[in-house]
Amino acid sequence: MHDAFEAVVAIEKLPLHIECIATWESSLFVGTRTGVLLVYSIKETSDERDRLEVELKRPMKSFSKKPIVQLAVVGVLGIFIALSDGMIGIYDLETCTPRGQLQKSRGANCFAIRVQPSSSGKGQNVFLCVSVRRHLEVHQWNSREGQFVSFCADLNVPDTAKVLTWCGDSICVGFKKEYILVKVTGGALTELFAAGRHDPVIVSLGPHDIALGKDEMSICVNHEGKPTQKQALVWSDPPFALERVEPYMVGLLPKVVEVRTLEPRMLVQSFSLDKARFICAGRDVYIASEHRVWRLQPVELTAQITQLVHDKQFELALNLAKRVQESKRDNKERIADVRQLQAFHLFSQHRFEDCLKIYTELITDVKFVIGLFPSLLPNEFRKTLKYPATPPVLVGVELDKGLSALTDYLTGVSPFRR
């Protein structure tokens, strides 16, 4: 394992009970049980002791008389949406002043937002799905009217939704006992599978992919409900909240926070945050308990790559290397350096074909490759070749396998490289 994030306290000993959180750019929105909305500005500092500069920009004490149970920011429209007392309210993102309510959606218990490029290529289409008892309402933002308008007839579902997430042109609905996909155009229902012993958990993996919780597993499916991974991602305990933070999955478990990857499937990090309940991600990632908020500060990618290479976790190291912000030339060299180390590691594991495939793709000096094998180059010349470590001594069957792979490799090498 290695450290992908560092949890830094942003807000502590909040006298109000947190019910939900949302983030946008440098702002954090906190909805509370008493109906107070808190909007913070949180920025990094250069001070090693006070890592974050936290400013309470707007304490909206009379925002609602009931708990604020869900918040979502729609940055492209300059609004945020709040669910409180069964009502969906739309508010100005800068001033927090009301811009309207969805009167039709009275009795709502959860909602989901979808933002997608318009077919004309100009602007964005914003859709809002709201769960009201045993039906779903779908609304689309009308820029001329400056409000959400009904997009289609209400969609009937077999039970009250506990959680909603858009998946392509469908909506994935998590009920107490099962998951279904509902096609927005026509309302066709596709049953997926049981939710297991715990509350349903859904997280978006992209425009057309989601992960669904079933006990200790997260099962990845596409907008048609078909699995996209051969195996489920398995957690040490059933997660009750998930967030996708590329290339990681962050899960809140009863006792710890776990960071895992889908490809390769592995546990990256595990740490404790006392009574963590909520997570949200935007430009930054926040986790909250009832009275405290942490920000997950990503560890520098270069530091993560160094540790992963040391631990021989080359697939993830390559994934991260591609994300480093640097010139194309420098990034190409960084990736090549990691792949060279990966190839040598594969050779040390006697995975000769995989090793030589990488050396071929990297157009590695043929003499360097031949030098991995004993007695094929003059000893004095071989000593001038620099390897990450001493190449393993091959004998018997393993030597025969290696030489056979080397013969195939040399046969495919251009004569100009020999």
Q: Which helices and strands appear, and what pairs or packs with what?
A:
Blueprint: E1 5-11, E2 18-24, E3 27-32, E4 37-44, E5 52-60, E6 68-74, E7 79-84, E8 87-92, E9 98-101, E10 108-117, E11 124-132, E12 135-142, E13 147-150, E14 155-156, E15 163-167, E16 170-174, E17 178-183, E18 189-194, E19 202-206, E20 209-214, E21 217-222, E22 233-234, E23 241-245, E24 248-252, E25 257-261, E26 266-271, E27 278-281, E28 285-288, E29 293-298, H1 301-310, H2 314-321, H3 328-348, H4 352-361, H5 366-370, H6 379-383, H7 396-412
Antiparallel strand pairs: 1-29, 2-3, 3-4, 4-5, 6-7, 7-8, 8-9, 10-11, 11-12, 12-13, 12-14, 15-16, 16-17, 17-18, 19-20, 20-21, 21-22, 23-24, 24-25, 25-26, 27-28, 28-29
Descriptive overview:
With 418 residues, this protein is an alpha+beta fold. Helix content is 18%, strand content 40%. It contains seven helices and 29 strands. It has helices spanning 301-310, 314-321, 328-348, 352-361, 366-370, 379-383, 396-412, and strands at residues 5-11, 18-24, 27-32, 37-44, 52-60, 68-74, 79-84, 87-92, 98-101, 108-117, 124-132, 135-142, 147-150, 155-156, 163-167, 170-174, 178-183, 189-194, 202-206, 209-214, 217-222, 233-234, 241-245, 248-252, 257-261, 266-271, 278-281, 285-288, 293-298. The strands form seven sheets. Strands 10, 11, 12, 13 and 14 form a five-stranded antiparallel sheet that branches. The chain has a four-stranded antiparallel sheet with strand order 1-29-28-27, with no helix packed on it. The chain has a four-stranded antiparallel sheet with strand order 2-3-4-5, with no helix packed on it. Helix 2 packs antiparallel against helix 3 (328-348) and helix 3 runs antiparallel to helix 4. The longest helix has 21 residues, at 328-348. The protein is elongated and about 85 Å long. The two termini are 41 Å apart. The mean pLDDT is 94.
